[in-house]
Amino acid sequence: MSNIIILSSSVRTGRNSDRVALYFKKYMEENNLANAEIVDLNVYQFPIFNERLKFQPNPAPQTLEFAEKIKSSDGIVIVTPEYNGGYPAALKNVVDLLYDEWHRKPTAIATVSNGGFGGTQVITSLQFSLWKMKAWTVPAMFPVPKVQYAFDEQGNATDKAATDKRADAFIKELLWCIEATNRMKS
């Protein structure tokens, strides 16, 4: 079974995107699709990095732990809010921190917003940064408009059937990319 990291990227007070990260963890485990672990940037509270990890003379243990989680995973689901058409500085900070760890890593992007567009404006800028890192961005999206009404604080979808249907297509695309990557390594 694949090991998937769910990167919860908001560090704001009162954030809602974490609800979607919780949902994906439950969804993958309940449907026996993958082993899922949430890596929460709010827990790490990283400083602003002034250099890539591979050029840091004495990286902090939590930085090395984070890098290893990304590197050793089979795939990643990034859950990001849209802030004024872009993604959070905390996410940009860790995307730029790593390089080799992103190389050919199947990475799916779920976006959220409090408004009606579900964070879709952030997808192209985040994809572009990940492409520059040579990540394999999965050709599937999971936008969540009005996230505050779509999920409760425990990650339960208010319309479970419709959300599960969308999640099924999204996660299966990620799993397909993981399988393709594994076959290419053989």
What is the topological layout?
Blueprint: E1 3-8, H1 17-30, E2 35-40, H2 41-44, H3 61-72, E3 75-81, H4 89-97, E4 106-112, H5 123-132, E5 136-144, H6 147-150, H7 160-185
Parallel strand pairs: 1-2, 1-3, 3-4, 4-5
Describe the structure.
InterPro entries: Flavoprotein-like_sf (IPR029039), FMN_Rdtase-like_dom (IPR005025), NAD(P)H-dep_reductase (IPR050712). Residues 3-146 form the NADPH-dependent FMN reductase-like domain. One of its GO terms (molecular function) is FMN binding. The chain is α/β, with parallel strands linked by helices. It has one domain (3-185): Flavodoxin domain (Rossmann fold). It is 42% helix and 19% strand. It is built from 7 helices and 5 strands, in the order E-H-E-H-H-E-H-E-H-E-H-H. The chain has a 5-stranded parallel sheet, sandwiched between helices. The chain is globular and about 50 Å long. The model has no long low-confidence stretch (mean pLDDT 94).
